[in-house]
Amino acid sequence: MVQLLWLRNDLRLHDHEGFRLASGHGAPLAVIFILPQQWLTNDDAGMNRLGSAKSHYLRSALIDLHRQLEDQTIDLHIFSGDPLQIFKDIQAEFTGTDLRLLTAEAQAPEESDWISGIRDLGMPVTTYSAQTLFTEKQIQTLGSSYPSPFTRFRNTVEGDPGLWQVKTPVDTPPLGVHEQPLRLQSPVSWPQSAYQVKLPVSGGERGAQLWWSDYLKSDAINHYKTTRNQLMGKYSSSHLSAALAWGCLSVRQIWHDILQYEAAKGASEHTYWLRFELLWREYFHWSLRHHGKQLFQPNGLASHAPESRPDPARWQAWCNATTGVPMVDAGLRELRHTGHISNRLRQNMASYFIHQLKLDWRLGARWFEMYLADADVASNYGNWAYIAGCGHDPRPQRQFNLNRQLRQYDPHAEHIHYWCPELSGENATNIIRHQTGEQILPLYPAPVVPAPDGD
Hints:
46% helix, alpha/beta, 5-stranded parallel β-sheet, 20 helices, DNA Cyclobutane Dipyrimidine Photolyase, subunit A, domain 3, 3 domains, globular, Serine Threonine Protein Phosphatase 5, Tetratricopeptide repeat, single chain, Rossmann fold
């Protein structure tokens, strides 16, 4: 018997059911990560799924995990290609040997197809939970109709604490298994970056653990609700999303650490709000599992698709960060260089893309998926569908007044000055006049589509 542990969005050792199962079984173990070739291949819109900052974060996470496994004399095999073909090749390498695959539950239809294809090869597959707070058994108590909107889901969870207990995370002990070498070679050619990347938090489990510990020790969590919408600031938000997306941190650990913090220092609206955001994430994850490919249709989960039309000029302006709306362009530049933008700015950018540029919301979701280091497919598409009015929320659409948002969240235009230094001499008032098309600034492109300043 040879065990294969296929890691995808669970790049950690702590609270890891896959490593626990492998250790308990005791058979030789090969640990595998596969970078799907389609992530590196441009689609018909010129996008792939591995922008520079996202690639940098993933590589950092894999290097960190590789070093931790090396301490236990286990190699991390990193391949590139079609996952199904990779496992066919491994199966051929071990002809006559029983193989057992361990991997996390599928989050998205693409992953479900991979796992089904591997089972069709005759390879036994055991899946485990790695990305969610709650178990499938708990979710099944909701019945066949998934609660909609989010408020109903949250009220259900918070209304029955006995049923909705979050499993306590369990540290993975020293693995104590022998490494199974693999002869297969399918190396990764990582994309080159044309610009400097600067991540807010380094990739990998140990860096994420250090950041989370510092965030709690500094009591930054006690202003989370107030500052989470700020466009800049080291401690303005938790910066947990990338670590959670790649599974460098266990969401169960985060939940229980917040509870321990509340027990020691007192609960507040801020500590609650971080758990509230984790429930949003949970909601999107189970929604994707429930609705599957339907979420990726033009109408999403609604009966009608939002208005959109192809417009190459508008699309290129977005891709080149030359929309002429400085608030949007600053966010696009930040996204390219850091793999991160604040939650509030994401909402504003998505609103402009959908409601002013009138482009297909799924195109914007794919753009974010390419560049965001925290590109969690469930949360990313769920949020874009939410803004487009074709998610769970019953409102037909959510449109943001970018100029009002700028006055509230970047009143001195600090974020714009940082990412659009050509506007460093302009105050927020002049920038807003430019965004609305009222008075065009001489050193900046005119808006492709002005951002209205009405109600």
